[in-house]
Prior knowledge:
single chain
Amino acid sequence: MMKKKLYFWDIDGTLALGKTLIPGAASLIEEIHRQGAHCCYLTNNSSKGIDEYLAQFEQWGIPAKREEFMTAGIYAAKLLKAKFKDEKIFVLGTESFLFECRREGLCVTQEAEEDVAAMLTAYDTELTYEKIRKVCRLLEVHRFIRPWYATNADLCCPSEFGMVPDCGAICKMISLAVGREPEFLGKPNPGMIDYVLKQYGIARQDAMIVGDRLYTDIECGKRAGISTCLVLTGEEKEDSGKADCCFPSVAELGLILRNRKQETVVGYCTGQPFQ
């Protein structure tokens, strides 16, 4: 099951913690490319634009192309552009995310104007209370009329020192105030995986997702019908048996892919230890 044609990689907590690359990640990606397989970096983190990710990967020494990235933010922008055309969308997000939305052709506003067609909340590391007030105002004024979307349901995002509030936590705060919840578009919604599989023309049995969260990464893979691999460098700290494979980190997965002796690898595959 390790010989796949397409690997979906979560980034935060899986390949890196903040700006620190997890040991073994770069050599693992190099090995996958050496074997002729593809990588897609599938992240719920919508606080960064693709240009920022490309610059970060360059610093890590990992060659990457723009088309290899699919963020929950980009996917949300594509969906909303198709659904609402040139209508105004109120977006709560970083300047980088707003730039990506405009690049996708979305008509973005950050003003609480009453002619907006929908609202989109993202992981905003530049969050202010005034932004929260604007979202609440729009949701109260158009409670049963305007749809509310969010990029992802993650409650926290791994950093170098621990966890920080993610989009799900921001939305929870708003929901408690207005008595309404958004429709989450990122993982575990399988839409991003479906979109990328179609773009690459790769069958589901030839793809795998690797991530650190059960309720987003692994659940997304299961809903999409692809293989799943859990690593314990992010939110999850022990194997629950819910993923097809579980390893302490991506380094152990790299050992398997390089055909090292299995007895040197600590990990589990469909409930059986590599011993």
